[in-house]
Amino acid sequence: MPTAHPGDTVLVTGANGYIPIWVVRKLLEKGYNVRGTVRKAEKGEYLKKYFESYVNQGKFEIVVVEDITKDGAFDEAVKGVDAIEHMASPFHENVDDPEEFIRPAVDGTLGILKSALKNNRAIKRIVITSSCAAVVTITPEARTFSEADWNEQSITETREQGRQAPPMTKYRASKTLAEQAVWKFYEENVKKEGKVTWDVVALNPPFVFGPGIQEISDPSALNTSLKAWYDFAYSPSASASKPKEAFEVSNSWVDVRDLADAHVLALEKEEAGGERIIVTQGVFVWQEWLNIANALPSSLVEKTSKPLPKGFPEITAQPQTYKVRYDTSKEQRILGVKYTTKEETTRDTVEDFVRRGW
Q: Taken in order 56, 50, 214, 30, is the CA torsion positive or negative?
């Protein structure tokens, strides 16, 4: 299958989001042309200003796709592009019915594939941003997951519990079903029928941390994962409201800039075609982030608007059991991402918060 190269035009959906805007930036810096979608024209104004030099060179443009779940929503946006980074996710507001969560996730993801099939047979590759939510299963024992694993547990629990299912269970079910729908569509319309020459890559990240360059008015406007980091490691009031056991919770993470690199590499590496790839730097318990933040140079720590939270340092005095690990051998073999350390991510994130006056 053909791969993308600098000079090609890439469609990035949901371009104003935390991860997508970094993907846009990395693509532009590498010499690609980018067409970004946003839900409303005003959402694109910040992007036009941030990427003004590229706009002036004709390398970056914005198109409005108001509702990504509508049939044919991307029909115009896909015309004339060489590759797609599909990163937009449906907008949810206090969704109760699981179907209201799941159908938009599935329809929004399939919509871009259907538009590409119908309106641009010359596309080289489509990269879908999935999630480790579609991989992980909650188990009492520690476990290492790989691309062979699917989160059937959340689908089953959501079907059984319906409206009573926890929001995170509904979210995980929606991510799993959306990615499964992608591979079913790919198998039936691309591999079996041979209708087009493009292929699909799914990237599965866990928690995503690191400095945000999207439009952020104040901490309450942070995206979910970065807000969690802010609440644990930076905000003394939010951190103090959490019980000790919350700081002992472990998971895996990736720096947003490394994930953006992975999205670019997924367009360029021929071997990535037809693969789902877990992209993660490694494991953490929340207390580790607080320890690292408090060990930053005093010249930086003194600039924070309030003292950094300490949490419960005794947690990390003991050997840690990391409940959720991921096998990253496929990512290292195919993409070879060079990862940012916890220390670098912490420093850069705190510097960004300080710059914002927080």
A: positive
CA angle 37, 263, 80 (to 5 degrees): 45
In 10 A of CB 163, how many CB atoms?
12
> How confident is the prediction for the chain on average, in pLDDT?
95
Residue with tokens 């846009």: 24
- State how far the alpha carbon of 94 is from the alpha carbons of 172, 225, 338, in Å: 16, 18, 38
Tokens read off for 296: 């930053």
Give the H or E element holding residue 63. Answer: strand 60-64
45-60 confidence digits (pLDDT tens)? 999 999 999 999 999 9
Question: Given strand 9-12, what is the order of strands in its sheet?
Answer: 60-64, 33-38, 9-12, 83-86, 125-129, 199-204, 276-278
Please name which of 169, 173, 207 lies closest in space to residue 105, comparing C-alpha atoms: 173
Three-point CA angle 268, 186, 267, nearest 5°: 10
Phi, psi of 245 (to 5 degrees): -65, -25
pLDDT (tens digit per residue) in 67-94:
999 999 999 999 999 999 999 987 665 6
With a cut of 80, say whether residue 193 has pLDDT above it. Answer: no
